[in-house]
Amino acid sequence: MVFHRTEQNLLESNEWADYYVYRQGALMxxxxxxxxxLTNGILxxxxxxxxxxxxxxxxxxxxxxxxxxxxxxxGVVDLTxxxxxxxxxxxxxxxxxxxxxxxxxxxxRVIIAPSLEMYGMMRMFEIEGEATRPGIHVVHTEREAWAxxxxxxxxxxxxxxM
Length: 162
Known about the structure:
Elements: H1 7-13, E1 20-23, E2 26-29, E3 32-37, E4 42-52, H2 53-70, E5 74-86, H3 89-97, E6 108-112, H4 116-128, E7 136-139, H5 142-148, E8 157-158
Parallel strand pairs: 4-5, 5-6, 6-7
Antiparallel strand pairs: 1-2, 3-4, 3-8
Helix pairs in contact: 3-4
């Protein structure tokens, strides 16, 4: 990864907070990014690399902060770039039963889970969270997600550009 500014400058400015985490004395890229389609009101999160219980919980906390600030009309979680999904059933169940930050039952939430393992885990999340998140859909592809949201070509921009 190439930094245009030094790690010290990033740490001092706090500009790194949405993209990096400071662990064990090093600045590391977060395993997720958030962006927003202003036209359609879609908040999207793309997880990548290895996803663990800790990463998923941290993603939920960070996503909640963005959702409160932006108040999207829909949300998409994209797991396409995940290489390892080491999340326990207990974590999925606990997160599914938690109260959503945006409690609007009409809010459409879509999870893109291309692999069978992730798809199964996300279907469990959907079933366990049915009472609190009735507008959730689990799909295999981005194309299916956009069809559910009735969006032909979403145009996302990074949240720091808003």
